[in-house]
Specification:
Blueprint: E1 7-13, E2 16-21, E3 25-29, E4 44-50, E5 53-59, H1 60-63, E6 76-82, E7 85-91, E8 93-99, E9 105-107, E10 120-126, E11 129-134, H2 136-139, H3 148-165
Parallel strand pairs: 2-11, 5-7
Antiparallel strand pairs: 1-2, 1-8, 3-6, 4-5, 6-7, 9-10, 10-11
């Protein structure tokens, strides 16, 4: 079982809250024009250039099969690093950096480990909300769209489990 990150950037896609370990994030920028790339995977919008580096853009709303953000002014690109390669994640909004309390962390329950949840390492409590912490490599394992509904079921189940363990009905 992988330990939880200490801190994560909290962002939203399709109305669902996600987190990404801040150690995987280089920077968060405003969107810029994306240059399409022929024959790229369906969820790769194209590439952007940031300070001379050409970076592929993975649009999370396409990856999760949701509609784009209602407010385009809130949209952000999260520049990440995976195995030494840069990747921009397109998110509807990025709201804050959260601390992840190990007591409020739950790995993905084995019953819920399915292809549509393979990009989730676990669920963390952030105040009253639950945040799904993403596995960056899991986002890239397949070109099939990931089921956001299946991920929301994961969050609901983890929340119920956390409340039972805390002694709340």
């Amino acid at each position: 079982m992988r330990p939880p990150p200490q801190q994560a950037a909290r962002f939203s896609v399709g109305g669902t809250h996600f987190g990404l370990d801040i150690m995987q994030i280089k920077e968060i920028i405003e969107p810029q024009p994306v240059k399409p790339v022929p024959r790229a995977p369906r969820f790769i919008d194209g590439v952007i250039e940031v300070r001379g580096a050409v970076i592929p853009v993975l649009e999370l709303s396409k990856r999760f099969g949701t509609s784009p953000a209602a407010d385009p002014a809130e949209k952000r690109f999260i520049i990440t690093s995976l195995a030494g390669k840069l990747l921009a994640l397109g998110a509807d909004s990025v709201t804050e950096i959260i601390r992840i309390d190990p007591q409020g962390w739950r790995p993905v329950p084995s019953l819920l480990r399915r292809p549509e949840t393979r990009c989730i390492t676990g669920v963390a409590r952030s105040g009253r909300d639950l945040v799904m912490v993403l596995d960056l490599a899991g986002l890239l394992r397949s070109e099939d769209p990931l089921d956001l509904g299946g991920m929301q079921a994961l969050v609901d189940e983890a929340g119920t489990q956390m409340e039972k363990e805390a002694g709340h009905p």
